[in-house]
Amino acid sequence: MSAGARRPKRPESADIAFTAEVRAEELRFCEVPQTRTEFTGVPAYESGSGSERAHLPERVEKDVTYRGVRVHYWLAAKVIYPSQADSDGVG
Asked: What is the pLDDT of residues 14-42, one digit of tens each?
């Protein structure tokens, strides 16, 4: 995994969670990808996403071949209902 990388916080108990793992002997990008994860909606929510990577930098470079790549991606969200927000001081 990337040394010194800041890990995003996962919600303590998620209502929805998604994980995926990708492995590649070789991986090459013809273009630097533009990525974004966005959470929206009502009621309020607590959410996060992040990845743990092996042999792949946080920002990849165009036309560079990365070898022995592994990426574990996670995404989680927890709905905060109005009654919870009042008792938790959220909202």
From this structure: 888 999 999 999 999 999 999 888 888 78
Tokens read off for 42: 């009502």
pTM higher than the cut 0.90? no
Stated length of the chain: 91
Residue 47, classified by CB atoms within 10 Å of its CB into exposed (0-12), middle (13-18) or buried (19+), is buried
Torsion sign over Cα 9, 57, 72, 28: positive
HSE-CB for 2 with a 13 A CA cutoff: 15
DSSP state, 3? T
